[in-house]
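[Meeting: bench + compute handoff]

Bench side (C.D.) handed over the final construct sequence. Compute side (W.E.) agreed to return the predicted structure before the next meeting so the bench team could plan truncations. Sequence as handed over:
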Amino acid sequence: MAAEKQKKRRVIKKSKTVREKREKAADAKPKQRRVRQAADKANRPIKATGRGVAKAARPFGFALKPFRTRPGRLVGKVLYKVLFIGYFVNSWRELRQVEWPNRRETLKLTLAVFVFAISFALMIAILDFGLDKVFKQLLI
């Protein structure tokens, strides 16, 4: 009888706690998305060109000396504001923080936009048709 009870006893798996799941997720390498990889590959020549220009311009650093004085810094700040350099710098920083949707999410969102646009157009068309009939009956 005791042997039969041991055979029938179910084995219950221990469920993972939230802390264990979080630690496991932290240990796993985050998957880099294809878009990010493609963007990095496309950006490499631009970065290399920028480094080359910076290296070539290094001997001409004396041209920046006036901007290290107080009046020069003022002129630099004015140019920074007038040429909207801050806007472009902040825009680029903001774009770097964007988490772009993957292909499936993009497809779902695009489909949702099309469904909404078509349903809204149908609603407007029906309303227009109905109001047209009502006003033709009243005015004619």
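W.E. noted at the follow-up: Helices lie at 2-8, 18-27, 34-57, 70-82, 85-97, 103-139. C.D. will use this when planning the next construct.
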